[in-house]
């Protein structure tokens, strides 16, 4: 009788602890949603007037950014294209490298080498972006100047820098996705006569595509949102060009460079630029969500 009473009290105590933990998790989730709503309200309420004053078409597709002129111009199309070109070029170079590196780490890397490579990649992920920027300014920019003339600050230089910066993120998430593929997938393919390389490329990697794509999306998100490192090497010229050897200015660098002295409609135009950047990130995440849902149905 006494034993049953003790067990009931223990069960009641355990249920109470689980209830507290559940409410704590719920509170943390609500805090995350609250901050997203707060940030969205701040940037959209601060920048929405620009769309009415300047005009949505002139703001998004105008190529002249001259906020100090009379009358001022607030066209950010050159900066939108600058952000897109730097991000796409960096991603196009980073994805194959990250994919093969993560496959090697998960499937073929000797244990002694893994103990060296993995901490190195983790260290790369933790290095502050300004350190990457100084590295690019003192090493990559002079090399680009020697190879392609000019001042060395260009779309290609910024893309190479971002390639180095987003690699650890894509590799880490892709490696985890590859390791989570059930071993019978690999064994079944080998038993049917496929080689190790063919099994990895045609069975294991496709099975891990959802996680790999998540890593790529996070890498793209970091690339398009990167600011401090890009400021040092992109040239910071507000012009529309598709020449990868010329300098440009991205949306993030425009906000950082001018927010310190901006006032009035100039400041609102910079906040509106943040709205456009926010929508870009939203589109990337929605694309990932759609891709993941379709992958789950296959």
UniProtKB/TrEMBL annotation:
Protein family according to the UniProt entry: Belongs to the binding-protein-dependent transport system permease family. CysTW subfamily.
Keywords from the UniProt entry: Cell membrane, Membrane, Phosphate transport, Transmembrane, Transmembrane helix, Transport
Reported function: Part of the binding-protein-dependent transport system for phosphate; probably responsible for the translocation of the substrate across the membrane.
Protein name as catalogued: Phosphate transport system permease protein
Gene3D superfamilies hit by this protein: MetI-like
ABC transmembrane type-1 domain residues: 80-288
InterPro entries, per the entry: MetI-like, MetI-like_sf, Phosphate_PstC, Phosphate_Transport_Permease
Domain of life (superkingdom): Bacteria
Stretches that traverse the bilayer: 20-44, 123-141, 153-173, 211-235, 270-291
Compartments where located: Cell membrane
The gene coding this protein: pstC
């Amino acid at each position: 009788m006494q034993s049953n009473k003790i067990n009931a009290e223990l069960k009641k105590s355990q249920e109470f602890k689980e209830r507290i933990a559940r409410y704590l998790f719920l509170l943390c989730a609500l805090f995350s949603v609250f901050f997203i709503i707060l940030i969205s309200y701040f940037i959209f309420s601060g920048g929405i007037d620009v769309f009415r004053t300047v005009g949505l078409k002139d703001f998004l597709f105008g190529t002249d950014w001259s906020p100090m002129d009379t009358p001022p111009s607030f066209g950010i199309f050159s900066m939108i294209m600058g952000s897109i070109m730097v991000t796409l070029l960096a991603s196009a170079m980073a994805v194959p490298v990250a994919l093969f590196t993560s496959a090697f780490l998960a499937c073929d890397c000797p244990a002694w080498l893994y103990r060296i490579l993995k901490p190195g990649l983790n260290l790369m992920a933790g290095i502050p972006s300004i350190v990457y920027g100084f590295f690019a300014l003192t090493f990559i920019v002079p090399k680009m100047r020697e190879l392609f003339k000019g001042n060395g600050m260009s779309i290609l230089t910024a893309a190479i820098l971002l390639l180095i910066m987003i690699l650890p993120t894509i590799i880490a998430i892709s490696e985890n996705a590859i390791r989570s593929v059930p071993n019978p997938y690999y064994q079944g393919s080998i038993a049917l006569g496929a080689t190790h390389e063919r099994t990895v490329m045609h069975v294991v990697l496709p099975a891990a595509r959802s996680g790999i794509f998540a890593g790529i999306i996070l890498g793209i998100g970091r690339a398009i949102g990167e600011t401090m490192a890009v400021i040092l090497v992109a040239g910071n010229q507000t012009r529309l060009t598709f020449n990868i050897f010329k300098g440009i200015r991205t949306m993030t660098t425009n906000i950082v460079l001018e927010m310190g002295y901006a006032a009035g409609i100039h400041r609102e135009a910079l906040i509106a630029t943040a709205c456009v950047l926010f929508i870009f990130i939203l589109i990337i995440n929605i694309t990932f969500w759609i891709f993941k849902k379709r992958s789950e149905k296959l």
